[in-house]
């Protein structure tokens, strides 16, 4: 038996794991790594199932090529040649914008997913770049981009030091934190209470987080910006604000918030005005406080406004960028994703609906339009990497139909699932334990400065290809270099750019040195590892891959420290409290005040044993609370005469789903978890527990306007009893 140490790659919490393997390389046990200074031995049921997930017999082992309705195994060379023919054919016939690329959520969790994203996007040179970002967190990027100039300046709650944590539309007891990496969130919340702190949760559901909170305010879905504006209103009218940062727009903010009194907010949110005003006063009075919001305040009609207001409240209470408030993590690797240039969104618009670009991406909500609508620039081919948008995107069934019409589609994915079955070629990456691991992106949202590298635990089999090689070869094909171009050549090009820049950066340890000499000193067994090595050496702690290897449990780099001044890159050099694109969107919010309130709306829900659709093929993660049911308040069960099953209808579709009455959800709201609806998948366990696709009900035509983000929460629906 051998024991290996590795970061869990499943969710944002980045827990350290201790993995026992038998001589055949099979995982026999997974425990939390007690020596990891950040996660300290914590593990959740998903992490404990990593071995089963990794060894899933339904994972594809060979490239697959589809001929008509039939799939057959292919060699890597044959598969890449088919990709070359497919992509090159579409580019030659229709131009580069005719190829779309979609990066799914797992690409944020792998080294290669991060490292090759930019080279692949640049090689494709298409305006049709999409990702799970616009069905998740794009509103946060857009809000922070406008406030601070840097869309990656995302402040995390300093949960270990705060005196008051206000959680809006997030459920870290089950999600374990998202855009906020805090392994063992339950312990951290417990400790907050034990040191006399207060936890308040605003959520339409009494989630597990709400259940342990000091106070739960059950809000109507999607109305958080009204509540937060009323908090701003109270802070400013009662002179409770204590702004400590250099800001522009405080007077304009005061004027904008004037009409959104707590009484106005109550009429929309359903939260009593006196509770909203009291909340504002408590936030202002707390020695330190942090407001944190995730999916419930992001995948909503006013996601950007909500995320903007979260930071505005943190700024007004003097809590942004200070211990105990919300703070910016300082990553170990050079932050190559920060451009240093002021953020701009909408540099181009989508062809059909004119939706804005953000971070170089178009909204996923318009991908089907771009495929279906004829004309110059129509999408005719798709490269999908670790993505299952048929289940994850709004109006997934429409997207599935659109995929059928593509001239070519290639997926990098370990499964034959609801999306990849529409592809012409599937390129399967190896198992997780066969890949080195480093969290480039998640380490920008850890609640302590921390870093950890995990080498591959198991070698590749001769007939496997690393994820890095797969993505590098796709990049070379997209660049017109053909199917047989050497991926090492791409790595050297990228390394050459990094090394070249390093020798020019003033103050860099390599300034003025010979690039060839610097390149020769780099350490690593693969392109991504070599790139990581130089990024660590150029990072603020002067680390290296060798140092990380010497510390297999990770390195604690200390508590978060104020660093906004370093990140701020607005043209004015000040925090912009009232950026014009945000102020403009307030008009849309104002119009809601006179709009009718839907009688019943749909929201999603996070489940402890699930994350996204790819976790539904592991028997140990199914059952218990991890069931795809419709949560309905008993009052609504009676009101609509529901029995065991219900038909839920929306503007886009309908599903028949099992009813689970529960008083944990407020009346007027029903909930279906996301990622279900397994149909036509070769994932046998998932196929036996298919659930329903909540995204058959979500409407791709409704988006958060500034970010183009999809709206999954607050979808108007009707329910009626279903008798089979
Ligand atoms: S909380 Fe997330 S990172 Fe930690 S063990 Fe569970 S799935 Fe893995």
UniProtKB/TrEMBL annotation:
<keyword id="KW-0411">Iron-sulfur</keyword>
<feature type="domain" description="4Fe-4S Mo/W bis-MGD-type">
    <location>
        <begin position="1"/>
        <end position="58"/>
    </location>
</feature>
<dbReference type="GO" id="GO:0016491">
    <property type="term" value="F:oxidoreductase activity"/>
</dbReference>
<dbReference type="Pfam" id="PF01568">
    <property type="entry name" value="Molydop_binding"/>
</dbReference>
<dbReference type="GO" id="GO:0051539">
    <property type="term" value="F:4 iron, 4 sulfur cluster binding"/>
</dbReference>
<dbReference type="GO" id="GO:0046872">
    <property type="term" value="F:metal ion binding"/>
</dbReference>
<dbReference type="InterPro" id="IPR006656">
    <property type="entry name" value="Mopterin_OxRdtase"/>
</dbReference>
<dbReference type="InterPro" id="IPR050123">
    <property type="entry name" value="Prok_molybdopt-oxidoreductase"/>
</dbReference>
<keyword id="KW-0004">4Fe-4S</keyword>
<protein>
    <submittedName>
        <fullName>Anaerobic selenocysteine-containing dehydrogenase</fullName>
    </submittedName>
</protein>
<keyword id="KW-0479">Metal-binding</keyword>
<dbReference type="GO" id="GO:0043546">
    <property type="term" value="F:molybdopterin cofactor binding"/>
</dbReference>
<keyword id="KW-0408">Iron</keyword>
<dbReference type="Pfam" id="PF04879">
    <property type="entry name" value="Molybdop_Fe4S4"/>
</dbReference>
<dbReference type="GO" id="GO:0016020">
    <property type="term" value="C:membrane"/>
</dbReference>
<dbReference type="InterPro" id="IPR006963">
    <property type="entry name" value="Mopterin_OxRdtase_4Fe-4S_dom"/>
</dbReference>
<dbReference type="InterPro" id="IPR006657">
    <property type="entry name" value="MoPterin_dinucl-bd_dom"/>
</dbReference>
<dbReference type="Pfam" id="PF00384">
    <property type="entry name" value="Molybdopterin"/>
</dbReference>
<keyword id="KW-0560">Oxidoreductase</keyword>
<dbReference type="InterPro" id="IPR009010">
    <property type="entry name" value="Asp_de-COase-like_dom_sf"/>
</dbReference>
